[in-house]
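Hi L., both proteins are below.
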Amino acid sequence: MAIWLTENSKIIVQGMTGGEGTKHTRRMLASGAKVVGGVNARKAGTTHEGLPVFGTVQEAMEATGADVSVVFVPPKFTKDAVKEAIDAEIPLCVVITEGVPVHDSTEFWAYAVAKGNKTRIIGPNCPGIASPGASNAGIIPADITTAGRIGLVSKSGTLTYQLMYELRDFGFSTAVGIGGDPVIGTTHIDALQAFQEDPGTDAIVMIGEIGGDAEERAAAYIEQHVTKPVVAYVAGFTAPEGKTMGHAGAIVSGSAGTAQAKKEALEKVGVRVGKTPSETARLMREIMQSR
């Protein structure tokens, strides 16, 4: 089992003919993912990497039965690309693009809500979603882990890869990189709910980072709704106080948003929190070995 992305998922790539789109389309195909076409209005009717290119998401869906779109378009075109995917009511839209203006992200998120939330958005500024052995939508390396029964949700792309690699002997049902921007489509809570309901997931790794209150809200949700074991890591324990860090979401005000405050909120509801990514992997290893 997996969440949101399965071996039956049919993927189209918005921006497939660009440099990044081409590279990662090849990589997704090599991993066994069912990539069925691309979208580029100026190159509609041609083929690229052996796949048909369509003028719109709607046309691509009608011709291929696609139910997932991965967006590799420049930041200034991302809002329109995502709104097009929402208008077509594609069930899953994975927005890889980095540097999308927060105002644009807010606008397409609100647009999805207004349209009845028929399209789940993951990202922007994220590595995507991978269900090892089944499918891969985005830029997560397909060969660093195996299929298994751990679910992972992470704000950080790099830490997603590290935890997947360190726990490769147990493997993952699905790994979801939700991105670290202040406004994102899919949250920790969305993934926690899906993993809780997924019979193929036994335990959950949650990776957060300093800034905002997403992890505190996730802790409150875990207390009320999650019965599976959760292990967490909060990036930023060594961040100097009073310093604004690189990720747009990593803005700390007072004690709120610090790694320590998030750690305490999570531990209060029974989540084990590692001080380093490797310690977090060790905590999950202990849980899986005891099952």
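That was the first. Here is the second:
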Amino acid sequence: MGPEGLGTIVNRYEHTQALAKTAVGLMAERSVAPTPENYELFFSYVSGQNPALSKVMGDLIANRKPFTSPVLEDLRNRFFPRPKLDDEMVSLGNNVSETLNSMLTKLERAGRDTEDYGRKLSAVSGELGSEPSAGGLRKIVEGLRTATSAMEARTHALESELQKSSHEVGELRRKLEDVRKESLTDPLTGIANRKAFDLDLRKAIVQAREHNEALSLLICDIDRFKQFNDTFGHQTGDQVLRLVANCLSESVKGRDTAARYGGEEFAVIVRGAPLRAASLLADQIRQVVQAKKLVKKSTGDVLGTITISIGAAQLLAGEDETSLIHRADAGLYAAKAAGRNCVRSVSSSHTPDVAA
């Protein structure tokens, strides 16, 4: 190895060491547990290996948002997909391929049998044309009966095999659909995850423009969520997340989408609703959440009430999803600044309105 190659390796090693120290230091600064999974996230952030992850984490750090367990879990699910789902998709894909290949083999064999039967019929036709004797005719008829019976048996067998294969393909299709749904569902709360939200929002924007309909977006955040975790533990924090998700599911109907946006944040895509109607829905959701009591399952003790802050924005002409999210997020920050447990909407001026 030449001196230049050795120098390159040394420089790369020193650079990696510097990135590792920066990642560990940032984790300590943000009070993040030094687990391998968390280190993977922060090393990827400081190294810039994943631009999308770096953008999201950079925004969290810039806005001084805490890296709670739900936030870290959400980042891992979004940017480092669970291998379980990947393995299931590969396994199901292989099963589909095997089943289809088996069906093709059976159909090819049936085609060969049909050709063979056709040749036998042609041979019989030729023999009949030569005016055979009575004994020869009986022989021809017997041979024809035997060939036809064999063909019928093969046809029945093929029908049975294809019916079985069709059933197997149907089962595999249902399993693939289950895996697809699982990949779009937040495992903790059972509602749509960030991936499903991104897909639905893009689709909703296209449909709103095609049908000239209004489209609004709500961004919700649980007030003082970190205090629940610090005071009562992460299991209680998970219970809070599930409770809020249930409130959103109960309040959102029809074509609308409720999703866990990230960490303790949720989002609601409100189709066909202008800003005023969406803001009224947001306030209804806020009141539903506030009316709930957080109860410790083991003792039945009431731990307190939960409140959420919500930002609302309506899609503008020519606006993309990034700008719409940014304006709804601005409304959320305005709601937090106004004392929490309220709704703030953002009009076309990008300035948060005073009230919902």
